[in-house]
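Sample intake sheet
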Amino acid sequence: MIRAVTIAVSLCLVVGVATPVAARDDVRRRGSCSGGPGEWMLRVQRESRTKLRIRFEIDDVPTGQRWQLFLSNNGTRVYSRTKVSRRGGEVRVRIATRNRPGRDRIAASGVNTKTGTTCEGSVRY
């Protein structure tokens, strides 16, 4: 009986070790902007072993307004620019950044320079 239990436990361990763990393909967060209209979406996905692809979008905002945009990876700024919202009320950023050791904390924010509306969020990848 003890031998049968030992064999069963050993098989479970071998199968558990041999089964590949699926990597998370992407992580997404969404939210509402504060101080005005707008919705934001932050998406991070692995592009390769050494690169992450970051996408930050702000939608449903007035057309033709300036937005200061900032992205960081583990507290290090990886993007800082001003963009104008396009027709359809959208502001979009897509960049690739180095995949740092361990879990990455990606933070994104956008501030409308005219109205002060702020859109910000973060993900762990």
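Comment: Confidence is low (pLDDT under 50) at residues 4-23. The beta strands are 26-32, 39-46, 51-59, 66-73, 76-84, 90-98, 105-112, 118-124.
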